[in-house]
Amino acid sequence: MSQWRNPLRDKRDKRMPHIAGPCAVVIFGVTGDLARKKVMPAIYDLANRGLLPANFALVGFARRDWSDEDFAKLVFDSVKDHARTPFRQEVWDRLAEGIRFVQGTFDDDKGYERLAESLDKLDAERGTGGNHAFYLSIPPNAFPVVCEQLKKSGLANKREGSWSRVVIEKPFGHDLQSARELNSVVNSIFPEESVFRIDHYLGKETVQNILALRFANELYEPIWNNNYVDSVQITMAEDIGLGGRGGYYDGVGAARDVIQNHLLQLMALTAMEEPVNFGPGDLQAEKIKVLSATQVMQPLDQTTARGQYVAGWQGSSKVVGLLEEEGFSKDSTTETYAAIALEIDTRRWAGVPFFLRTGKRLGRRVTEIALIFKRAPHLPFDKTMTEELGQNALVIRVQPDEGITTRFGSKVPGSAMEVRDVNMDFSYGSAFAEDSPEAYERLILDVLLGEPSLFPVNREVEFSWEILDPVLEYWASHGKPDSYESGTWGPSSADEMLHRMGREWRRP
Ligand SMILES: NC(=O)c1ccc[n+]([C@@H]2O[C@H](COP(=O)([O-])OP(=O)(O)OC[C@H]3O[C@@H](n4cnc5c(N)ncnc54)[C@H](OP(=O)(O)O)[C@@H]3O)[C@@H](O)[C@H]2O)c1
Fold it and tell me: Of the candidates 52, 150, 53, 38, which has an alpha carbon nearest to the alpha carbon of residue 102?
């Protein structure tokens, strides 16, 4: 941890970027979607921004019979197609010098021996210093075997004065039991401080801005509690369906895919207390406290809803239902929409329901956190003058159109004292000149810098499953999801769920 720097208390010149030290990144699963569309382009973008060391090395490990040049071509294509920043030949040429390929399958000892040789050579020739990050962009069932092999080949052991880290992509298990098993295997090989679990939502600027909004201002924190907040709605809505992703999604569903990780992380950041500091473990400690105090409200038939999309219209296109999508069995009960109501047993949040929902083929692509405030205890206006006044709201728009909206009542111009809702808006696009980096740029750089704050630790993952497991078990033993038409905002059972609690879903 010697090179860890507290980003909030850093006294260095803030114009000096944090540049990673000498190191090599080894990617497993280089031909996969994630590696090609996100990980490798983000590495190029970091190089382009001058945040990687000149002697950086990138090693691909895959079962193809490829040369270094073949792999470099794959990286080149993925950079050309998906990098955020402009292509610059000199940046590419420098990056390409450190690109190597090692052929092997996940369980083949010889492949890992070749990998160890290649890394030793890079350490000697390019001075990568024995610092290695192993990025597992592979099917989740292969995490244990690759970790075991890294141990067997000695690659998991950091040498004196160097580091060895493993990066794991979600899903971290499919229930509490499997998450515990996975954590136990991973932690028997890599100490927790060397394990970087990626929930890419935590790398988003708008998500980190929750911390700035809450803890760098005096305006919001005094009202951020059950004295003023009526309820919280956290939404991740997608307008796309599951064409082409059947194999991965069938049997997983919306709750496991999104609520267990992204939405519970957003909830934890929204509900947690102020961390003592932003040092290693401080942020996670506060999130752990919230997650350990959270449970799904009861009874589950009233406080949860799930749905599966059927054919409908997405904008001007006619789209098919889930069961007609390729890769789904005709009797699949996988939910594409999930909503749950949570309670957090703390002094700050007692009595405030947190509603989490996510779905595919909904009306619009949007992720937001909305704090809905209580109504004013008394309105000294004629009742007819406040008919269009709703509840005040603070909405953090995570994506797209990143920003923050405050909704409050304002007098309508004219002689009557009519009051109606208006919005006050902050938008990243107009407030800042520079574009936000991609979440993967920030997270990969943090891995290389050894800054762990934005990565969920094993206990967070386990508490999240502990919250969700009862819902998954209840759904598994209670028939099929309700249907909802594509392009709408989910099944009617989700609306009824909120009506029963005297609330309504926002229509973002
Ligand atoms: N895609 C996303 O946006 C996304 C988002 C969040 C999390 N994730 C997670 O990230 C991981 C990777 O996702 P993905 O979408 O990139 O998966 P993917 O497209 O299925 O790619 C999997 C990769 O693993 C390799 N592989 C599979 N079995 C192998 C074996 N036995 N030996 C050697 N290589 C093997 C594949 O190589 P071959 O080409 O040789 O088959 C491929 O490169 C998964 O854990 C996923 O859940 C993905």
Answer: 150
- Do 396 and 491 share a structural domain? yes
Question: Closest Cα to atom 17, ligand 1: which residue?
Answer: 32
The token pair that represents 187 in the structure block: 């932690």
Q: Which of 109, 141, 169 is the last residue of a domain?
A: 169
User: Quick check: is 106 in a domain?
Assistant: yes
Q: How far is the CA of 252 from the centre of ligand 1 (A)?
A: 16
Nearest to 490 by CA among 481, 499, 503: 481
Question: Are 484 and 366 part of one and the same domain?
Answer: yes
Same domain, 300 and 416: yes
Closest CA to 369 of 256, 298, 268, 438: 268
Residues 328 and 375 in one domain: yes
CA of 290: how far to CAs of 29, 222, 390, 459, in Å?
Answer: 34, 18, 29, 12
How confident is the model at residue 159, as a pLDDT?
Answer: 81
Q: Is the CB of 39 under 6 A from ligand 1?
A: no
User: CA–CA separation, 403 vs 400, rounded Å?
Assistant: 9
Asked, for residue 331, whether it belongs to a domain, the answer is: yes
Q: Is 29 in the pocket of ligand 1 (CB under 6 A)?
A: yes
Ligand 1 midpoint to CA 145 (Å)? 14
The answer on pLDDT for 1 being more than 50 is no
Instruction: Confirm whether 180 is domain-assigned.
Output: no
Active site residues: 262
Instruction: Flag the least confident range among 61-70, 92-101, 273-282, 288-297.
Output: 273-282
Chain centroid to CA 151: how far? 28
- 227 and 158 within one domain: no
Q: Are residues 130 and 234 in the same domain?
A: no
> Is residue 447 one of the residues assigned to a domain?
yes
Tokens of 181: 């098993």
For residues 54 and 128, membership in a common domain is answered with yes
Distance CA(404)–CA(324), nearest Å, equals 38
Q: Which ligand 1 atom sits nearest the alpha carbon of residue 140? A: 45
Closest ligand 1 atom, residue 36 Cα: 16
Which CATH number goes with the domain that contains 120?
3.40.50.720
Residues 407-427 pLDDT 10s: 999 999 998 899 999 999 999
- Can you say which residues are annotated as belonging to the binding site for NADP(+)? 63, 170
Number of folded domains in the chain? 2
Q: What's the pLDDT tens digit per position in 140-175?
A: 999 999 999 999 999 998 788 899 999 999 989 999
Residue 312 domain boundaries: 205-500
Residues annotated within the binding site are 63, 170, 200, 204, 238, 257, 360
